[in-house]
Structures are given as C-alpha cells and as structure tokens.
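ok, trying the design again with the full structure, not the truncated one.
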C-alpha cells in the first residue's frame, strides 16, 4: 500500500505514550497500536483530527505517500499513452 502511517515517529518526537494518546482521543490502546503499526485499511477523519489536535501536527506529518515501483511504471505507461 502506498500510504504509510508515521504516527509512531510523530509520537516519539512529541514524547507521547500510546496509553496517554489513546485515552486522550477516545480509542482503545489496541486500535492505536494497529494504527501505529500500519495494519489498518482505513482511518476515520474524526480520529485523524483528534490525533492531530492532541499532537499539534498536520495530517501530512502522520501520513506519507510512497508509490510502489510497479504502480509508478503503470502510471508512466498511462501518461505516455495519453
């Protein structure tokens, strides 16, 4: 998946522990752990909003787009064909 979650990095920079953030934004520590590990297929905007408010960051600090090489090649082929 080309979207990578960098929540663990932002939390470490802010020196925020998982249990503190989970409690502050109203989700379980298990769900926060899944978010931190990137083992989720979606993220609710209200959850993202709560995380960003608590950590004083922007969504772009937490989410990063890293396209796959195969995806890059197919996108390039489409652009070349057009």
């Amino acid at each position: 998946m080309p979207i990578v979650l960098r929540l663990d990095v932002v939390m470490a920079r802010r020196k925020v522990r998982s249990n503190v953030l989970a409690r502050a934004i109203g989700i379980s520590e298990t769900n926060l752990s899944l978010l931190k590990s990137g083992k989720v297929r979606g993220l609710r905007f209200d959850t993202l909003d709560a995380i960003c408010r608590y950590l004083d960051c922007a969504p772009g600090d937490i989410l990063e787009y890293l396209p796959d090489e195969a995806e890059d090649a197919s996108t390039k082929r489409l652009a070349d064909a057009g």
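Keeping the full-length input from now on. The first strand starts at residue 3 and ends at 5.
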